[in-house]
Design goal:
Blueprint (H helix, E strand, L loop, with lengths): L2 E3 L4 E3 L4 E10 L9 E8 L11 E2 L11 E3 L15 E6 L9 E8 L2 H4 L6 E10 L5 E6 L9 E10 L2 E11 L3 H8 L7
Parallel strand pairs: 1-10
Antiparallel strand pairs: 2-12, 3-7, 3-9, 4-5, 4-8, 6-7, 8-11, 9-10, 11-12
Organism: Dinghuibacter silviterrae
Keywords: Tellurium resistance
Protein name: Tellurium resistance protein TerD
């Protein structure tokens, strides 16, 4: 039976091969399509991306250690009805030893000109699915607490005492994807 997580709750993952599904449902009638983008930041012990290619998003779908694979962009929010809009497949056994944390963030593309925010999005969630069984292990439903935010940290996987744990984050920001990249990457951006 899947665990329904609350904000800030932490659990032991207990498996290596999983899919991290992220889902949302934009409200109708806002005038523009909602293009929400899921990203994963693979962070070292200093909470920085060790190399640019450890930033996983629609423009870089695979990590160099082959531990993460992004399903690709859902530019309209219509990828699925009731299912995951974007998925990141994770194999923790392959994660580069420098990486101590994998942070999952969803941002609204072009939120400024389109005047969009997470207050106009409902049914947002992050869930962990065991790839060997296809069963949902844990799910965190964010609710509608983000009235002005344009980006949300949904959750994170992190190493602690040799084990991987998952934390339901639910932290909102009034920022875009470039903010997170500048926060977690200090090298020269090539792309």
């Amino acid at each position: 039976m899947a665990i329904n997580l609350q904000k800030g709750q932490k659990i032991d993952i207990g498996l290596n091969n999983m899919s991290v599904g992220l889902g949302w449902t934009p409200n109708e009638g806002t005038g523009f399509a909602f293009d929400l983008d899921a990203s994963a930041f693979m962070l070292d012990q200093s909470r920085l991306i060790p190399e640019e290619k450890y930033f996983i998003f629609y423009g870089n779908t695979d990590s160099p250690d082959t531990a993460l694979h992004h399903s690709g962009d859902d530019p309209t929010g219509g990828n699925s009805d009731g299912g995951d809009d974007e998925t990141i497949v994770v194999d923790l056994a392959k994660v580069d030893p420098r990486v101590q944390e994998i942070l999952f963030v969803v941002t609204i593309y072009d939120s400024g000109p389109r005047r969009q925010n997470f207050g106009q999005v409902r049914d947002s969630y992050i869930r962990i699915v065991d790839n060997s069984t296809g069963l949902e292990v844990a799910k965190y439903e964010l609710g509608e607490d983000f009235s002005i935010e344009t980006a949300v940290e949904f959750g994170r996987l992190y190493r602690r005492d040799g084990k991987w744990k998952f934390e339901a984050s639910g932290i909102g920001y009034k920022e875009d994807l470039a903010f997170f990249l500048s926060k977690y990457y200090k090298g020269q951006i090539i792309k």
